[in-house]
Amino acid sequence: MPPLISAPARRSYRRLFSLPGTRAFTAGNLLARLPMGMFSISAVVMIAGSRGSYALAGAVTATGLAVTALAGPWVARLVDRHGQARVAVPATLAAVLGSLALLLCVRYGAPDWTLFAAYALTATTPNIGGLSRARWAHLLRDDPGALHIANSFEQAADELCFMLGPVLASFLTGAFFPEAGTLVGAVLLLAGMLLFTGQRSTEPPVQRRARGKGPLRAPGFPALLAGFLATGAVFGSMEVVTIAYADAHGHRSAAGVVLALQAAGSCAAGLLYGALRPAGPAERLHPRCLAAMTALMTLPLLSARGTGSLLALAAALLVAGMATAPTMVTAMTLVQRRTPEGCLNEGMSLAVTGLLAGIACGSAIGGWTAEHAAPESGFAVPVAAAGTALIIGVAARTGKQVGSGKLVGSGKQT
């Protein structure tokens, strides 16, 4: 089998990690990022196994997600004002204490309300992916080509961690004891964050933030957030609908493996996209990536309706996932470009908040559709969400062209 990445591409990635300190902070951020795919499933298994209620487990994790969406930008703003190490370490300690408190509350039968309070405390977890991207943006500010490779690697790392995290959590909770996934996740998070923040030579300097120049007031940024919301709905709906489809065909236990293939396709595409270095600005490439994602998201729908085979669906999801990483890479590149100076971490945290909100909405809509219609019909929800993201992206680009004085399609200036 030929190698996934060509020799020139491997040399490009090697040059990226030849910069002093980059290997160490990357190792730390991967350690700290892996638990992000572990905590939710670990909490569900731990709570449902102890209290016998998936409804309670789901409510606790949903509450944590909502609090994270509110607290994330606030923590990121503190990082921008005071630096990564000064804020990320105490924020991580608070989150780890929240995880341990949840573990103890479940273990010793504390009242249900304590589970909500403990899990809400984990919302102080810094956006480690955003912290890492901020370092690359600082180190490679004069080399757009290398920054494209770094952003592609970060997206592939996201996919890898969210692919391996649930698998590791399931193994730990099943092979040892129900609290093992939460305990190991907390240890990895703290160890990884300490290693990451210990690399002070690569930490971006604190920049003065101009008064009244937050990300939400930056031109084009609100449209980006709307796009992240729609893209998150793609992810959330696809997960729920795939589980429902597998359950309807008597293969619910295989749903995790099928979804992991989608993440694997996205991970591979992220690495390849970084190596290819497509020509053109991100403003032009992003709508094209959204169009590709919309087209490829029709494959699971066609497979589910036309074949009824879980194996065929798995293959369709593997291919469909290949448009995810390029879409996210170009979107994050736009976030980096459109966020005002001095608030990059806040801008990227807001993007993640948009994704989380979209995942929650997509999960709800996908679940309702799968329950009230045929499970196969649920796969229309990710297609509709991707199409919405495409419309937003095209409208934002067209509006920017008109606003900048260009007559779209004419090449003339007004």
UniProtKB/TrEMBL annotation:
SUPFAM superfamilies: MFS general substrate transporter
Gene3D superfamilies to which the protein is assigned, alphabetical: MFS general substrate transporter like domains
Sequence intervals crossing the membrane: 30-48, 54-75, 87-110, 183-202, 223-246, 252-273, 285-304, 310-335, 347-367, 379-396
Stored InterPro entries: MFS, MFS_trans_sf
Keywords on record: Membrane, Transmembrane, Transmembrane helix
Pfam families from the UniProt entry: MFS_1
MF terms (GO), sorted A to Z: transmembrane transporter activity
Protein name (database record): Transporter
Organism: Streptomyces alanosinicus
